[in-house]
Design brief:
Blueprint lengths: L1 E5 L3 H10 L5 E5 L2 H10 L1 E4 L5 E4 L3 E2 L8 E6 L10 H4 L3 E9 L29 H5 L6 E5 L2 E4 L4 E6 L2 E6 L6 H12 L3 E4 L3 H22 L3 H6 L1 H20 L8 H9 L7 H7 L6 H15 L4 H20 L1
Parallel strand pairs: 1-2, 1-6, 2-5, 3-10, 6-7, 11-12
Antiparallel strand pairs: 3-4, 8-11, 9-10
């Protein structure tokens, strides 16, 4: 099995390290500078048990050199997906499955869905429909992860906690590619699961992210602190309840309560959310995919979400002020 991983960030590095230990032919596709650094220094991974593994993954900055792949994982931020199209295209064969490992509501979410989605692209995550037109949603295997992993310096990642991934076909079909992915991730020592309703799994992950990621930027606090402080916990809970109302209008059934989901997030402990890490590093925040998309869906469904709108406005202003000061 030929596997390409586009993006050498924390998630891409983790997949390259762990999937590269299987029998699959795994290649990390990175930008030229990152590819050169990894070829020169290798990749260092710190495990949840603080064990250090030094690895030498296959890496390239030229996707044309690889040819068609069986699986392609897109491990970039949601707003960076458009920049992967030229890299992705040479990797596609007739049966290639594309697995976007992105936060928030993905661009393919309306695929084969009834009104008010009805195959209408989401402007918040795909403003001109470019992703919809160029990446066939029928190729997509939806994915969501519940791992805490972060960059820990050049060519170094820290896997903080958890091993769980959930995969399902974007068109809600019985797709053999999903089974192949679940088997591969099991061989890599992860805890993968197959679902017939990947959108439900996406909402469970997003439920925590849409509340506590933005709040972490506003407060500078870790996930554990946000979940355990009464004020920020109540604010996050209110945001989650608004999002729940939107999801239920779209037919999503939650099998986890709000408080159980907050407890899941609290269990990660004093971990900086990916959004706080991006803010501190001066990188663009995933606000459109994590909050803007939910607000757009709320508009389609006729659901009022004042708390989500207020928090988005505050975090957006904070991010713009940081860019202006840079």
């Amino acid at each position: 099995m030929k596997v390409a991983i586009i993006g050498a960030g924390a998630v891409g590095g983790l997949l390259a390290a762990r999937l590269g230990a299987t029998e699959a032919e795994v290649t990390l596709v990175a930008r030229p500078n990152a590819a050169s650094a990894i070829r020169r220094n290798g990749l260092t991974m710190v495990t949840p048990l603080n064990r250090v593994a030094r690895l030498s993954p296959r890496v390239t900055d030229d996707s044309l050199s690889l040819g068609p792949q069986d699986l392609v994982f897109l491990c970039v931020k949601a707003h960076a997906l458009r920049g992967t199209i030229d890299t992705l295209t040479p990797l596609l064969g007739p049966e290639t499955a594309i697995v976007p490992m992105v936060n928030g509501i993905p661009w393919w979410y309306p695929h084969r869905q009834p009104d008010p989605l009805a195959d209408r692209p989401l402007a918040s995550v795909d403003p001109d429909g470019l992703l919809w037109r160029t990446i066939d949603p029928d190729r997509v295997v939806g994915a969501t992860s519940f791992v805490a992993v972060e960059g820990d310096g050049p060519c170094r990642i820290r896997h903080v906690s958890d091993q769980r991934f959930v995969f399902g076909d974007a068109g809600d079909r019985d797709n053999p590619a999903v089974d192949r992915i679940v088997t591969l991730f099991g061989q890599a020592g992860f805890q993968p699961a197959k679902t017939a309703d990947i959108r439900q799994a996406i909402w469970v992950k997003l439920w925590g992210n849409l509340a506590f990621n933005p709040l972490s930027v506003l407060t500078g606090s870790t996930l554990g602190r946000l979940c355990n402080d009464p004020g920020t916990r109540d604010t996050g809970r209110a945001m989650m309840l608004e999002a729940k109302a939107v999801a239920e209008k779209l037919g999503v059934v939650f099998t986890t309560s709000v408080d159980e989901r907050i407890a899941m997030a609290a269990g990660v402990g004093d971990f900086k959310t990916s959004m706080l890490q991006d803010y501190e590093a001066g990188r663009r925040l995933e606000l459109d995919a994590i909050l803007g998309s939910v607000i757009e869906l709320a508009e389609r469904c006729g659901v009022d979400v004042p708390m989500l709108r207020a928090v988005l406005a505050m975090v957006d202003l904070r991010a713009r002020e940081r860019r202006e000061a840079a």
